[in-house]
Amino acid sequence: xxxxxxxxxxxxxxxxxxxxxxxxxxxxxxxxxxxxxxxxxxxxxxxxxxxxxxxxxxxxxxxxxxxxxxxxxxxxxxxxxxxxxxxxxxxxxxxxxxxxxxxxxxxxxxxxxxxxxxxxxxxxxxxxxxxxxxxxxxxxxxxxxxxxxxxxxxxxxxxxxxxxxxxxxxxxxxxxxxxxxxxxxxxxxxxxxxxxxxxxxxxxxxxxxxxxxxxxxxxxxxxxxxxxxxxxxxxxxxxxxxxxxxxxxxxxxxxxxxxxxxxxxxxxxxxxxxxxxxxxxxxxxxxxxxxxxxxxxxxxxxxxxxxxxxxxxxxxxxxxxxxxxxxxxxxxxxxxxxxxxxxxxxxxxxxxxxxxxxxxxxxxxxxxxxxxxxxxxxxxxxxxxxxxxxxxxxxxxxxxxxxxxxxxxxxxxxxxxxxxxxxxxxxxxxxxxxxxxxxxxxxxxxxxxxxxxxxxxxxxxxxxxxxxxxxxxxxxxxxxxxxxxxxxxxxxxxxxxxxxxxxxxxxxxxxxxxxxxxxxxxxxxxxxxxxxxxxxxxxxxxxxxxxxxxxxxxxxxxxxxxx
Amino acid sequence: xxxxxxxxxxxxxxxxxxxxxxxxxxxxxxxxxxxxxxxxxxxxxxxxxxxxxxxxxxxxxxxxxxxxxxxxxxxxxxxxxxxxxxxxxxxxxxxxxxxxxxxxxxxxxxxxxxxxxxxxxxxxxxxxxxxxxxxxxxxxxxxxxxxxxxxxxxxxxxxxxxxxxxxxxxxxxxxxxxxxxxxxxxxxxxxxxxxxxxxxxxxxxxxxxxxxxxxxxxxxxxxxxxxxxxxxxxxxxxxxxxxxxxxxxxxxxxxxxxxxxxxxxxxxxxxxxxxxxxxxxxxxxxxxxxxxxxxxxxxxxxxxxxxxxxxxxxxxxxxxxxxxxxxxxxxxxxxxxxxxxxxxxxxxxxxxxxxxxxxxxxxxxxxxxxxxxxxxxxxxxxxxxxxxxxxxxxxxxxxxxxxxxxxxxxxxxxxxxxxxxxxxxxxxxxxxxxxxxxxxxxxxxxxxxxxxxxxxxxxxxxxxxxxxxxxxxxxxxxxxxxxxxxxxxxxxxxxxxxxxxxxxxxxxxxxxxxxxxxxxxxxxxxxxxxxxxxxxxxxxxxxxxxxxxxxxxxxxxxxxxxx
Lengths: 563, 563
What we know:
Two copies of one chain form a homodimer. Chain A starts with 21 loop residues before the first helix and ends in a 5-residue tail after the last helix. The first copy, chain A, has helices at residues 22-30, 55-65, 74-79, 86-94, 110-123, 179-188, 205-211, 218-221, 224-227, 255-258, 291-303, 316-324, 331-347, 367-383, 391-399, 404-413, 430-445, 481-499, 514-536, 554-558, and strands spanning 70-71, 103-105, 126-130, 150-154, 161-165, 170-174, 191-192, 228-235, 238-241, 267-274, 276-277, 280-288, 310-314, 356-364, 387-390, 416-426, 453-462, 465-475. Among the domains of chain A are: 166-277, Uridine Diphospho-n-acetylenolpyruvylglucosamine Reductase, domain 3; 280-399, 2-Layer Sandwich (Alpha-Beta Plaits), CATH 3.30.70.3450. In chain A, strand 5 and strand 6 form a beta hairpin. Chain A is globular. In chain A, 38% of the residues lie in helices and 19% in strands. The mean pLDDT of chain A is 95. Chain A is built from 20 helices and 18 strands. By secondary structure, chain A is α+β, with helices and mostly antiparallel strands. The longest helix of chain A is centred in the C-terminal third of the chain and has 23 residues, at 514-536. At the A-B interface, strand 8, strand 9, helix 10, strand 16 and strand 18 of A face strand 8, strand 9, helix 10, strand 16 and strand 18 of B.
């Protein structure tokens, strides 16, 4: 399990000591001091109300799973209370309680999951699925407005790769497998799933599917919904096993209904996923003359079929943060970097003021194929005045790619507010949306001389458009951290709706996006989701209060109508 | 409109006169004579019962659409009675009636469609959407078991390309546009949708979306569900407009629910589709040593990222049919072909007995890119012992690619039974499925010395698998044509279920596949479809008796429990 009130490995923290430029950069943006003023509570310091246990339900699940896999321990309940959103961490830091599950269940297989659901139906028990707990939209938090018992079902015991089919290039994998677990098993047999989201180390296949996750290599392998061939979804109304075929015309795509259902229809217990053989890999840094030019460049790469495996274009602020995070370099390396920069500035007249770093990653079966892909991509980069910085920048980004979430804890410890938002839109919409959202966030975050930090990168590109991923930070307003956060959310989602962008490209809805869902999907779309829900879960037992507005009053609790 | 009792342009027929080898080939397979013994009735010879008109409904739709766009004429009603399945054509030939719509409506825009649906809800009128009428699974036939009035809604007046977005490379197109109509508009602006199903000349965008259609270039551009960015679906419960974004994580994919809904949720009125610029094009014939080797070859092309834009591998029988269809060649061309064949046989020891023709098509923005794609594909073909026959075979296939359905009429005119079935499965399943289904069909079709014709091609390939498309023909059993056809269908679908293949890759369900749907999707999957249906069409007005079994008794009418 991850830290209770922060990100990741309890034994690991983001190390500031050898990054002399980082805190001065953060301070200049936000005015944030470097003293720890808002540490997280530990789970052991927290109390939870006594569990509301339904004896009939407990007997049934204990009989099905064995007593060792049914926990009512305070620590287990606390560790399955929150996800990892800013709101979640704020509450963990301040000791603000939320509705903890009354018990945590650890089934070993599909039939145990089905037994849990049967008992839930019989005794009217709320069921919240739990993978790795990395969700940042409230997706794993019990609905506090629903009376009666609540259990969280952790799939962490279901983590095997059941079948690897080398001919079809698919793997049948249990939904509770963490990223590193399933990659280790696949890698040992020469394959990879190719799905590496920021949360990779702590999130599970089932969580990725339930939330429509995207990994860093999505430009080549797609989002998780593009990788899934078939899946098993256990619902209170029975178990759905979708056809294990590459495409079908037998009605609406049921796999694409289960994917993104966020536990509201039931629990995904396993899936058949496309896998690909391990091969060569290379990451590079590219310096692009500006963010708008970069958007055009990535669009061109997409349309000319020259998109790398990974393409991540940072705006100026995120580029500056990236350079500020670098350990101090010395000697020949530092000298060479300086000389190269001087050459670009004076000889090539490269416009450093707007320069943006773009990370490109190439994967291919053979070195020759990789070289061919690299050649095509770099040729188009040159057409756009972009400069190849070589593989050391790429390797350094690759090595630290899972560290960003740890940095959030450092900032929050010191009294900072930091959050992310991501969206997708068509190419014609992206530049205007970017500039307007960045300006609006700065206007919201600015405090005197401190403009606030608004980093952004474009990643996950498609022929019709791409994803924009914003990270924003400022000094938290003591005493009104939550209103400050909700105000930022409102500002952001109103702008996304105005531009016709989606509310989320890969983080899901949970309860955090509920207030905007009816305008985003429309009343008919919501009716269809409610019809689906009702068809398999008429008692609204499965993850109530998430995804679909209007089924419980939970939304009003999190977004009081007054604010 | 197409012919009443046959395929395509009423002024066009398949010309046997310059194809001296074709009928001997057909006769050798089936024993079929060359005299016309079972011609189709013409619509003018048929009668239909007087329409059951609901006065309130007629007033409402006449007010909304104008009297000129509301037809109760016998011919219009007859021409919107059937699709183009073997069963449909049989009934047209024998003058067997079916339930004709009581009126045919021709709305001009979304708000007129919405007005029709409002009136349908008010007066309880059955609504059947109609695009081009090429459907071969009973998808456009009114449900004869539903009492009360039935209207067919033809979208043929809604055929404009509304917006072409060159930046996002998308086009907003009205659903009633026929293939040639929308391609003409897009081509004039330098773009193409890239969707060319066999029915292209007579089918519409809305029909493609409602049935999950696949075009011949799907290896590059995907099936229709891969091309759609967003769409508008008018339902009795309101209109759904899905987000115009490349990807989203806001719950289940509502576009992928509308796609494949076969009119049961309402009418798709327009969609935003990915388009791509026109470029270079080249088709080639490849001779492959055998069908199983060909499957391995196509799989390898897919896995090594060298799949052409079109890949269509015919089995031996379909290859033989293709050569039998060729006009007689003379002079230097015929001599060169003979010499080449002799060279392959004697020098290269090519195994002609099992030879299979594979058509490969390449499309690319520039000639250089096309050459590079061709080089990669042909290199892998050579590894598998396949021989490049050059572009004339490809060009000849390309020129005649829409003629196959016309050949069916010729065969049926002469007392033949001919039908198609297509499926998709993972690569590991395909060879066994192919051999077992082919053998079973031959066992079913054989009559004495005549083995029956079982052609098959593999097309539409994906990393996990591909589509198999069978065409089978034999002498029709006079007096029991329909039982003979239903027996073949039963045999086929039982085998598809046994192998875990899908019941259809791109022809949809209609009522033809209903008896197998509950085993294919499972009871929970059907429950979800029924829940969706109920959420927007609780009165079951929209295309009742299609896709979802158990909502009307129509299924028992078409597949009497006794047979």
